[in-house]
Amino acid sequence: MDEVQIRLRVNGLERRGRVEPRLTLADFLREHCHLTGTHLGCEHGVCGACTVLLDGAAVRACLVLAVQAEGREVTTIEGLGTPENLSPVQVAFQENHGLQCGFCTPGFVVSVTALLRDNPDPTDEEIRAGLSGNICRCTGYQGIFKAVRAAAGNTP
Amino acid sequence: MTTPGGPSTALHRPGTVGEAVAALAAEARAGRPVELLAGGTDLVPALRTGTRPPAAIVALRRVLELRVRGAGADTLTIGAGVTYTELAGWSLSPGLAATSRVVGSVQIRNCGTVGGALGSANPRGDLLTFLTAAQAEVLLTSEDGSRAAGLDDFLSAGRLPGELVTAVRVPRPSGPQTYLKIGGRQAAFPSLVSCALLVDRVRERVCCAVGGVAARPWRVAEAERLAAADVDWSTGTAPAALARRFGELAAAGVRAASPLGEDPRHPLEYRVHAAGVLAARAFARCLTARSAPRRESAP
Questions:
Q1: Which of A50, B54, B222, B290 could be stapled to A61 by a disulfide with Cβ–Cβ 3.0 to 4.6 Å?
Q2: pLDDT band, very low/low/confident/very high, at B292 (cuts 50, 70, 90)
Q3: Domains of chain A (ranges plus CATH)?
Q4: Which chain A residue is nearest to residue B86, measuring alpha carbons?
């Protein structure tokens, strides 16, 4: 076998693993780290449900190999908030009907968190462009858009 | 678990260009199929579907030499590992920046690299259309040394076994540049038809390439000759009628090229027409008097 040892930080905690080089980061997070909040929708880089932060940059975890995250910091939805202590973006999604079935929601929340960190006061057009890498089949996006607008107003 | 692709794969993690080409050469000598891994946005789906089943992968992230951008007196050099996100804000090349801003979604732009675009050589690739218009040179290194290849030669001949794309080199801008494209939802689909146009006010010429119609991004030489002859180079402007004529010649030029495979939903005749419309629009944005101050723009 050609497994390789990797070491990375996930939500602030060091994680080690022996992985096949072709194992995706999404599968490493879900299967090795048991962090199943990173959802897998299309698995070919279109739907955005698996979006995580890699050294702070939003990436699709189904298009990144686990070995590419070696030595880096990964933030998943579990690292952004907890049920008892939701992040401002999660609160805004809850209050503005930004989710329905919830499957796509982790990816949206991670993408929006990065968007508002880099651009705390986005225009409507910038919000739409920022959401374009994530697909939701339930909400029609209007609730999500309102949630981002609300979160932008509430994020310090 | 969905570990993509067939049997197990060896991983090389070089730290320098020298180590990377040594790994490539060793795999080539062993006769084993090897893939280069940059951002992974093209390779990882191909691993999953099995369309690219390598025995070995050379992962390039640790090769810091590939992530450098440089500006010389006449040229800009962009390392193969530079991402679209890094290019999107690069003031030294407004055309490259405009092109990079409209590639995929932010998640793709954060990963996808210049070298990956050249390695995948998708004929609809946004960056390839721009680099074709910009007359880019591709810099390659192997164990035997380094060479520069014109982009068109590179796209027709490809890499030699054991070669690594280290950078691309483009002339420094000397006038307005733009990149326009049409297609489905940008974040989910590659562009259908694209057009890059660069005005060179020093050499008094226009360079324009169209993607998504011919088998490779295609320079529209007749249209370029019209522009060189008829643009008022003292002001860098042209009348609106010239933009229309430029678009007609661009469409006629690309129609004559060897076509990209037929696509029933987007017939060739439609893509030829769209290419002419985009070329006329790009010309007008860069050269008609009303919008001449605009140096670059997204669609």
A1: A50
A2: very low
A3: 4-78 (3.10.20.30), 88-151 (1.10.150.120)
A4: A57
CATH topology of domain B65-171: 3.30.465
The continuous run of DSSP H or E covering A19 comes out as strand A13-19
ipTM entry:
0.94
Quick one: which of B44, B36, B47 has its CA closest to A65?
B44
What's the 3-state SS for B144-191? CEEEEEEHHHHHHHCCCCCCEEEEEEEECCCCCEEEEEECCCCCCCCC
Q: Which residues pair with A54 in a beta bridge?
A: A57, A74
Whether the CB of A132 is below 8 Å from some CB of chain B: the reply is yes
- pLDDT of A4 strictly over 60: yes
Average pLDDT, chain A: 95
Residue with more model confidence, B40 or A156: B40
Helix (H, G, I), strand (E, B) or coil at B223: helix
What is the pLDDT at residue B6?
A: 58
A40 close to A62: Cβ distance less than 8 angstroms: yes
Strands (E) across A26-146 are located at: 51-54, 57-60, 73-75
Q: Which helix (H) or strand (E) holds B268?
A: helix B268-287
B37 shares contact with chain A (CB less than 8 Å)? yes
Summarize pLDDT for B49-99 with one digit per residue, the tens: 989 889 999 999 999 999 999 999 999 999 999 999 999 999 999 999 999
Query: How far apart (Å, rounded) are the C-alpha atoms in residues B186 and B170?
Result: 26
pTM (2 decimals)?
0.93
* Encoded tokens for B158: 């490809």
Q: Domain B10-59 falls in which CATH fold?
A: 3.30.43
Judged by CB atoms closer than 8 Å, whether chains meet at A21 and B105 is answered as: no
- Is B106's CB within 8 Å of A21's CB? no
A104 vs chain B: nearest CA distance in angstroms?
Answer: 15
Instruction: Tell me the residue ranges of DSSP E strands in chain B.
Output: 10-12, 34-37, 56-59, 69-71, 75-79, 137-142, 145-150, 164-171, 177-182, 193-200, 205-211, 218-219
User: What pLDDT digit, counting tens, does each position of B114-147 carry?
Assistant: 999 999 999 899 999 999 999 999 999 999 999 9
Architecture of the domain delimited by B177-287? 2-Layer Sandwich (3.30)
**DSSP symbol at B55:** S
| Cα B58 to Cα A55, B40, B120, distances in angstroms | 22, 11, 15
